[in-house]
Amino acid sequence: MTKPCIVPKCKTGYKSVKQKTSVFKVPKDSEMRKKWMLAIPKICVNDVFYVCELHFEKKFLKKQCVMYNEKGDVIFKRDYERPQLQPGAYPTIFNNVSETVNDCSMDDVPCAERSYATNDLISEALQLPKDQERDQEHVHNVDQDRTLVDNCSDLNMEVDIEHPSVNEDQGCEPQMLTAADMETQPETKILRIIDKISVGYSSEVSAVSIPWSWTASEAIIDNKHHMIFSHVISRRSAIPTLTKAVTIDKTGKIKYSVHGRKLEPNEGSGFPLQLENCEDVPAILLQFEKRRACKGVILSGNVNVQLSAIFESSDGVWHSKDCTLITKGRKCVACKDLLQRINRSKRRAINKLKVLRAKQLHDEKQRKLCVAKKAESLKKKLEKKCDELRTLVKTKIKECRNVSQL
After folding, report:
1. Source organism's superkingdom (predicted)?
2. pTM for this model (two decimals)
3. 313 and 220 in one domain?
4. What 3 state SS string does the chain have?
């Protein structure tokens, strides 16, 4: 739900307002927060309030992301899913407020404080949105010089200096828009690469559009050129990890690998082993991407497992040596059995410790019980001796009385 705007009489964030608007958090920087406080009438601003985009001029809003190569040509251009603030931006539009803002005018602020960095050249790294879509594509063009791959050169990406990214130090944090706003965004995002990459096999060379999450590269394996398509994700600790790879040689033979191990697809698995047409590459990659990779087992603590029975993937997860790599659930049958064996081993270790403790407690109880029995036996013997002595004393006294009477 959109946060309410703190500008007086602004209805952004209310349930009665159907129009969805992006809001920006008040910056944490004291100087910028002072500008916002002087600009907004009759409001004591702090860094937990929000102001909607309706109160900012268009020059303060960044709505497109543009990338250039070394030659200055545009190689990437797309609209942001939500607008972002330029550094130094502050609200200036208050058409929905009946009171004037003369009491809180910017004229009271020195000229040095009113300046903002609109002409500064910011060369910081561009932060693209995290929610990339699967149908985004890299577009590769045709090259007739090589039969497999050519001109796989690196690009020097630069940020559009006319639209620098938001400075996080100033605290301008754009908020998430609703699903209704996201529907207006384009369904596909195209990366236009100036240095072309061609994909083909045999005598045919064609341009293909591969899915966004895949990358293409060339490698020489066994003195033969191969095209390698890699699928990288960041699952643990936000570290990019190679999970799947597809290798196509010059003859069109396709090989699959998951977690750095070769996948041996069966005839009924649906994975083609021979490339008939270069245009089938995107469909093959998408089909392979949709198949779930085995999540494996995370080992922690002291685990009694033979290293010959398991292997470690590139993301630090362990799998059984019989892992099928591709599975319908989270784990394959072999990795489930491995996890069950590990859990049984842990339970046995815990139970063994419990038995040992119980035995120790039992021995202590037995010792205390023996001491108590001995004490009870000695007590009974002492009581018996005391009774005998009392009887003997009474007998002697009686005999003495009889003698005295004679």
Report:
1. Eukaryota
2. 0.38
3. no
4. CCCCCCCCCCCCCCCCCCCCCCEEECCCCHHHHHHHHHHCCCCCCCCCCEEEHHHCCHHHEEEEEEEECCCCCEEEEEEEEEEEECCCCCCCCCCCCCCCCCCCCHHHCCHHHHCCCCCCCCCCCCCCCCCCCCCCEEECCCCCCCCCCCCCCCCCCEECCCCCCCCHHHCCCECCCCHHHHCCCCCCCEEECCCCCCEEECCEEECCEEECCEEEEEEEECCEEEEEEEEEEECCCCCEEEEEEEEEECCCEEEEEECCEEECCCCCCCCCCECCCHHHHHHHHHHHHHCCECCCECCCCCCCCCHHHEEECCCCCEEECCCCCECCCCCCHHHHHHHHHHHHHHHHHHHHHHHHHHHHHHHHHHHHHHHHHHHHHHHHHHHHHHHHHHHHHHHHHHHHHHHHHC
Kindly state whether residues 281 and 355 are assigned to the same domain: no
Evaluate whether 13 touches 4 at the Cβ level (below 8 Å): yes
Among 259, 293, 327, give the residue marking a domain's end. Answer: 293
Q: Is the pLDDT assigned to residue 167 strictly greater than 60?
A: no
213, 160 in Cβ contact below 8 A? no
Residue (of 293, 335, 337, 301) closest to 318 by Cα position: 335
- The percent of residues in the chain predicted with pLDDT above 90, rounded, is 3
Token couple for 267: 């005839």
Whether 162 is covered by a domain: the verdict is no
Distance between alpha carbon 259 and the CA centroid of its chain, in Å?
Answer: 18
Q: How confident is the model over 63-101, as pLDDT tens digits?
A: 777 777 777 787 777 777 778 888 888 888 887 443 333
HSE-CB of 313 using CA atoms within 13 angstroms: 26
Specify whether 281 is located in the same domain as 313: no
Q: Given CA atoms 96, 102, 104, 108 in this order, what sign does their dihedral have? A: positive
55: number of Cβ within 10 Å: 24
Residues of the domain holding 265: 187-196+204-293
pLDDT of residue 129: 39
CA dist., res. 274 & res. 255, Å (int): 9
| β pairing state of 240-249 and 224-234 | antiparallel
Radius of gyration of the chain (CA): 40
Quote the pLDDT of residue 28: 79
